[in-house]
């Protein structure tokens, strides 16, 4: 929940919407990959980093975050981000409103 507050602060401070959405979606994709690796018995940060070509410090940080969530929660969050991206491109609802709805959904789910 603290993460969402930090992201919300960055958004309201003027961080470009597309960058925020892209970075957030990337983090959820990586966490999902970590969960799949772990299901297949691969738990080493270095091995996951090597196989995904993602820096080990990123894997380490997101691995800690992924421990606190289920694969289903990660998938739901990523789906919500994809939906938010679609609505951003096809509706007149502004990004800040869509982001607030996303944060609300994630707060209730977590």
Mean pLDDT: 87
The end-to-end distance, rounded to whole angstroms, is 8 Å
Give the structural class.
Answer: mainly alpha
Largest sheet: none
Record field, number of beta strands: 0
Q: Give the strand content.
A: under 5%
Describe the structure.
- It is a single chain.
- This protein is mainly α.
- 81% of the residues lie in helices and 0% in strands.
- It contains 6 helices and no strands.
- It has helices spanning 2-12, 17-39, 45-52, 56-67, 71-90, 95-109.
- Helix 2 crosses helix 4 (56-67) and helix 5 runs antiparallel to helix 6 (95-109).
- The longest helix is centred in the N-terminal third of the chain and has 23 residues, at 17-39.
- It is elongated.
- It starts with a helix and ends with a helix.
- The model has no long low-confidence stretch (mean pLDDT 87).
Helices and strands in order:
Layout: H1 2-12, H2 17-39, H3 45-52, H4 56-67, H5 71-90, H6 95-109
TL;DR of this structure?
The chain is an all-alpha fold. It has six helices and no strands.
Based on the model shown, name its key terms.
110 residues, 81% helix, mainly alpha
């Amino acid at each position: 929940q603290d993460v969402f507050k930090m992201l919300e602060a960055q958004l309201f401070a003027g961080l470009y919407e597309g960058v925020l959405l892209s970075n957030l979606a990337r983090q959820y994709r990586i966490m999902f990959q970590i969960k799949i690796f772990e299901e297949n018995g691969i738990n080493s940060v270095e091995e996951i980093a090597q196989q995904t070509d993602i820096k080990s410090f990123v894997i380490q940080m997101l691995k800690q975050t992924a421990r606190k969530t289920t694969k289903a929660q990660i998938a739901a969050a990523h789906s919500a981000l994809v939906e938010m991206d679609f609505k951003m491109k096809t509706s007149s609802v502004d990004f800040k409103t869509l982001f607030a709805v996303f944060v609300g959904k994630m707060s209730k789910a977590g």
